[in-house]
Known about the structure:
Layout: E1 18-19, E2 24-32, E3 41-59, E4 63-69, E5 71-76, E6 79-84, E7 88-91, E8 97-100, E9 107-114, E10 120-122
Antiparallel strand pairs: 1-2, 2-3, 3-8, 3-9, 3-10, 4-7, 4-9, 5-6, 5-8
Amino acid sequence: MSGTPQPLLKRADSIEQHTVEAGDGLSKRVLVGPDDGAPNLAIRRFELESGASVPKHTNEVEHEQYVLEGEYVVGIDDEEHTVRAGDSLLIPAGTVHWYRNDGDGTGAFLCAVPNGDDTIELID
């Protein structure tokens, strides 16, 4: 889109939830992003079902995350971190990371990323 961005209000019931193929039990909603005219950032909500896992991978762009609910494990490089509602993370571009929800409830987090190409590379 070109020109000056326009203000936007998206109602919760208008935001579609999509399964993320790269993970088992992972879904995503794009709350605001480039398709909405946001020039710089996308904000997304991810949900990790109980038993969900996302394999080791890297992204070309940084991720800023805020845990909304639940408790789950985030692997960053060679360390595992149990995160809970209220925790925040910075995952720099190119950093190996993964997710696992061993708990009984759903884990949910917001993830802000810069707009542009973001190639995901799975790590064996």
